[in-house]
Every structure is written in structure tokens, then in C-alpha cells.
Amino acid sequence: MSSVATIDHTDWTAMPDREAAVKATRALEAGDVVLLPELGFAVESGEASFFTPAILDNSKNASFDPASGRLGGTTAKGRDAETLRRFIQRFSESAAALVNRVLPRYRDHLTRGRASFRPAEIAGRATTWRKDDTRLHVDSFPATPSGGRRILRVFSNVNPEGRARGWRIGDEFETVARRFAPELRLPLPGTGHLLSLLRVTKTRRSPYDALMLQLHDRMKADEEFQTRSPQTAIDFPAGSTWIAFTDQVSHAATAGQYQLEQTFLVPVQTMLDEQRSPLRILERLKARRLT
Ligand code: SIN
Ligand code: FE
Questions:
Q1: What pLDDT digit, counting tens, does each position of 240-280 carry?
Q2: Cβ atoms of residues 147 and 291 within 8 Å
Q3: Residues facing residue 259 across a β-bridge
Q4: Measured over all CA atoms, what is the biggest interatomic distance in the chain, rounded to whole angstroms?
């Protein structure tokens, strides 16, 4: 079962000792969540007005793309939009500083993806089963294929009322992948190319990405798996930060409001042990290359 490894680290830009860095890297690659219980992200006074789901358009989250500098998912306009953009950008840069120091092995190989601010209450949110993150799943992105790279995410609970964010964490990736592998179908040749031509995806969807999307969906759709497979509940306190490979860790967010998140992509070749990656595990199960 996946579990939680705690690291004492209280500053976004401080250097942890070498031992803590090795511990964090090993724990993440083993499928654990790394929790930094005392590392809070400081919200500035002008940012408090964004702490309402009313800033969202129809999206689950407001987002910031460091590559383009663009803000999304929000109805905020003008000066408000600028302040919100700077808030998420500040978190994005803090998360990058943290990961570069705590996970130095990946430092020169990371791609910083989008960051998000999540002001909606998770519990009771109405959505379709596929988008329902209260159901156990591994992450996979329909429009932006990872091409086999790992999805590493930094989360910070900024709830101003001191409420925790509740997650459930499920079984190990290999166990879950074995359970669903017989149902996962390799895409027809040319499908990845076609999807990018049609602009369904930004880049070509690899067979790996196709299998991961199916795995995400099969997990969420399987009632027996959701209720009966081994799982543990964890509460992430307000003012804490945690890191996980969410393409590997089966997770479900069950309750909580106001969270920041930053996504990084990590090439499997930079891992201590790439055989633990979802890419290499699925390649073994399907007995073929998937990227
Ligand atoms: C998820 O990645 O499934 C949601 C995590 C969260 O918002 O706490
Ligand atoms: Fe997720």
C-alpha cells in the first residue's frame, strides 16, 4: 500500500540535507506521498478576495500556464485577473524552487506545466463520473499527452478556516494495473497522429497515454474497485504541502476547499529506478514498447 513519508522542511527556498532529499526521492518513486506538514504557502492580504468559488467560470480550477503566462478558468477581469495571475504564479515559482531543492536528481530535466488554484468545495460537487476526483484514480491528461513522462504534483492546502483536505490513497500501481490490464486496449495504429491532426490533443497521443486514460476511466467506473480495494484516508492539514507522482499513486480527493497545485513532467530516465514508472510497468504487462 502507498503511504505517507514526512519530511521536516519549512521554507520554499531552503536546501534540505542530502539525506532528506534521498528519502524524498525514494519515497516518491516507491509510490508514497511526501508530506511537508509545516510548509505553508503565505497568502497576501490582496489575495483574500479570490477565496470564493465565484471566481470560477465553468472550470473546476483557475489555472496559470508558466509557458505562456496565461490565466484560465476564471471570470476575473482587469486588475483582479492580474492579481490572481500573480498569486498563482508566485505559487508556481515557489513549487519549482521547492522541487529543485528537495528533488535535485530531477532538477535539470523537469518541465513545469500548469499550476492551479482550487477554490471549490470537493465534497458533494456535482460532476460526471469521469471528472469525479472523489473516485480513486491515477492522473492522465486527455489533451496534453505526457509521452511516458511522469506526472509529479505539488499541492498546498491554503484553507483559511483551518480545514484539512481529505484524500483516500489506494493500492500500488502495479497491483491496480494488473487488475485492469486485460481491459486496456492498445489504440489502432495512426490514432495518435489523427487525434493531434484533429487538435483533440496538443501532441501525438502515445499508446502509453491511451492506456493510462483507459486506466483512469476503468478505475473510476468500477464500483467494486472503488468500495472494496485496499485504501486509506489521509487528512492534509491547512498550512501543509505534499508531493506525489499522481500518475502512480491511486488517489481520491474527498473533502476540502482552497488548494494550490503545480504539475511537473519528469522523464523516466532521470528516476533512481525507472522500472517503477507506470510506463515500464505497463510495458511489462503488455509485453511491448508503448512510446
Ligand atoms: C486530484 O488530483 O484528483 C485532485 C486532488 C485535489 O484536488 O486534492
Ligand atoms: Fe487526480
A1: 999 999 999 999 999 999 999 999 999 999 999 999 999 99
A2: yes
A3: 118, 157
A4: 55
For helices 278-286 and 173-180, what crossing angle results, to 10°? 30
Question: By alpha-carbon position, which residue is closest to atom 1 of ligand 1?
Answer: 133
> Would you call 264 helix, strand, or coil by DSSP?
strand
**What pLDDT, on a 0 to 100 scale, did the predictor assign at position 1?**
66
Residue type, 185: R
How confident is residue 126, by pLDDT bands cut at 50, 70 and 90? confident
CATH 2.60.120 fits 4-286, yes or no: yes
Q: Which of 190, 192, 189 is nearest to 202 (CA)?
A: 192
Per-residue cell: 268:
523516466
For ligand 1, what atom is nearest to the CA of residue 118?
7
Distance 252 CA to ligand 1 centre (A): 7
Domain chopping of the chain, boundaries? 4-286
Long-range contacts (CB closer than 8 Å, 24 or more residues apart) made by 193-196: none
- Please give the DSSP secondary-structure letter assigned to residue 38: T
153 lines ligand 1 (CB under 6 A): no
Cβ proximity of 150 and 245 under 8 Å: yes
